[in-house]
Amino acid sequence: MGNTNSGHRKRVRKRIEKSGLTGMAEYEILEIMLFSLFPVKDTKEIAKKLLKKFKTLENLLQAPKKDVLEVEEVGEGVYIHLKFTKELMEYLYKKEFENGDILNSVEKVYKYLKSDIGFLEKEVFKIIFLNSKNEYLGEENLFLGTIDKSQIYPREILKMTMSYNAKSVIFSHNHPSGDFNPSRADIEMTKKLKIILEPLEVRVLDHIIITSKGYYSFLEEGII
Asked: Rounded to 10 degrees, what is the CA torsion of 126, 213, 221, 185?
């Protein structure tokens, strides 16, 4: 029995060759992603089932394995394929993020941090370490759980900053609630961290609160 979808797939491939993904609906993009996993089966319906459950392609890529496998006709291979796609995107974001002056765009920093911590269900506090040219040196996740100023360990932060020989840092943490506005504790914590790092002549360039839907930059809002 021949592949009854071969004509459709040829048309889709020609469309991609000509215009890329421009003008495509998310279910069409997902349909194409699944071509290699289903050589004969119509992947459009599988794509639509997945997006009916997860609403957006971004949500799908962040979804837990057990939730993905609940969708009819979706097995381990689909989940692994989606996970690989997500990991590849994060890898490329990070490579772009690591090259050049990080502060040439807060949006660029957010793009990376969103994929890293924006969808987590618990709060994570991250420090990004930079050299005197604002170039990436490394990063560390310091805290997991509800973050407040009582959880700050100055000695640990100073030790990490010196180990990277950093000249500036960017703080970030996520708000699983989806509200990216800073709390009073967020503001007080940032002020305390600036004071802690002043003796080392290390600048706090920004503190970015991350959610899956947006961000709050202390730099852009004039708090730092």
From this structure: -50
Tell me, what DSSP letter sits at residue 220?
Answer: T
Domain termination site, one of 71, 92, 113:
92
First to last CA, the chain: 66
0.70 surpassed by pTM? yes
**Alpha-carbon distances of 104 from 107, 108, 111, 215, 219, rounded to whole Å:** 9, 8, 13, 16, 12
Give the model confidence (pLDDT) of 152-192 as tens digits: 677 888 999 999 999 999 999 999 998 999 999 889 889 98
Q: What is the 3-state secondary structure (H, E, C) of 88-106?
A: HHHHHHHHHHHCCCHHHCH
User: Mean pLDDT for the chain?
Assistant: 88
pLDDT, residue 219, reads 93
Question: Edge to edge, what strands does the sheet with 168-174 contain?
Answer: 136-144, 124-130, 168-174, 203-210, 215-217
- Joined together, the tokens standing for residue 64 give 């837990």
Query: What's the total number of domains in the chain?
Result: 2
Q: The tokens of 208 are what? A: 């970015």
70 in any annotated domain:
yes
Q: How many CA atoms lie within 13 A of 25 on its CB side?
A: 8
Q: What is the pLDDT of residues 36-82, one digit of tens each?
A: 999 888 899 999 999 999 999 989 998 999 999 999 999 999 999 99
Strand extents, DSSP E, the chain: 124-130, 136-144, 168-174, 203-210, 215-217
| Spatial separation of the C-alpha atoms in residues 54 and 99, rounded to whole Å | 33
Co-location of 114 and 179 in the same domain: yes
